[in-house]
Amino acid sequence: MRFGAIGNMDKPGLAEAVTLLVEKLEGSGVDYVIDAEIANLLAEKGVVLKGVHTATRVECVSNVDILVAFGGDGTILTAARSVGAYGTPILGVNLGKLGFLAELAPEDMDQAIVDIINKKYHIEERLVLEARSPQIPEKVFRAVNDIVVDKSHSSRSIDLEAHINGTFAVSYRGDGLIISTPTGSTAYALSNGGPIVTPTCDVIGITPISPHTLSGRPLVIPDSSTIRVVVHTGNEEVLISADGQDEAFVKPFVEVVIRKAEYRVKLVKRVDRTYFDVLRAKLLWGKDVRSM
């Protein structure tokens, strides 16, 4: 088994967390590679790696059995796009605030790495969305959480049509639309009133952003569907974004076609922790705040 390590260089505690990983892997005689930028950071901290264990980010992502991503949820989303069709399983270590996608805190790594070496873990596959727009034919957006089509810089609402499998489904007036995976149901979609969807469901969510009607409700459809979003904005630019990271501004006429990608992202999960444990811990799901 070979581990790879990448991380968010701006996160406090990155060097210390990676050092814990290195010490555990070297003590267990397990092979690993670390992103060269992190290795330089470790060297500045006086941590000397035994042998040659540095590599480019591409090598860390593509030539390992487990990729350890140190950072917050954004780091894991970036790692997922970097992995792409390589299919490398990702183990997230939270150095951020919420860390909903991350499986571990740094203090959990010692036992977790032992469990992984002993094959006491499971892989959870997550849906990935792919979006294209005829207005920017060279661009492909891929998202683990969501594809968002919104009004960009304008303070005015926009009109959108959603067509599903070639059939007109619904029109919305508001600030935009969130097309989300089950993983992304607890992200931007949730903050706009969308439902929580367990991550192994084979569905796609459509959630309006600030709809100007009480009948503008979220919609859940099979993940085999193709969604075509048509935007009517006048002369205002529209923003298309994937996971809030990869984005493009498009002038009208705007059309976006979203479907599931040909691959899924694989996340490393502990056998003694369920999705509902995460909901309760991270989102205080089911908690009565009056008794806290």
Mind telling me the C-alpha Rg? 21 Å
Average pLDDT figure: 92
Summarize the amount of helix as a percent range.
10-25%
Shape category: globular
What is the element string, with H for helices and E for strands? EHEHEHEHEHEEEEEEEHEEEEEEEH
**Poorly predicted residue ranges:** none
Q: What CATH architecture label of the largest domain applies?
A: 3-Layer(aba) Sandwich
Kindly report the CATH topology of the largest domain.
Rossmann fold
CATH class of the largest domain: Alpha Beta
Distance between the termini: 44 Å
Identify the CATH homologous superfamily of the largest domain: Probable inorganic polyphosphate/atp-NAD kinase, domain 1
Q: Structural class of the helix and strand makeup?
A: alpha+beta
Report the strand count.
Answer: 19
How many domain regions? 2
Main sheet specs = 6 strands, antiparallel
Strand content: 25-35%
Number of helices: 7
Sheet with the most strands: spatial strand order: 8-7-18-15-10-11
Give a verbal description of the structure.
The chain is of the alpha+beta class and 292 residues long. The strands form 4 sheets. A 6-stranded antiparallel β-sheet has the order 8-7-18-15-10-11, with no helix packed on it. The protein has a 6-stranded antiparallel β-sheet with strand order 14-13-12-9-16-17, with no helix packed on it. The chain has a 5-stranded parallel β-sheet with strand order 3-2-1-4-5, sandwiched between helices. The mean pLDDT is 92. It folds into 2 domains: 153 residues, Probable inorganic polyphosphate/atp-NAD kinase, domain 1 (Rossmann fold, 3-Layer(aba) Sandwich), CATH 3.40.50; 132 residues, Tumour Suppressor Smad4.
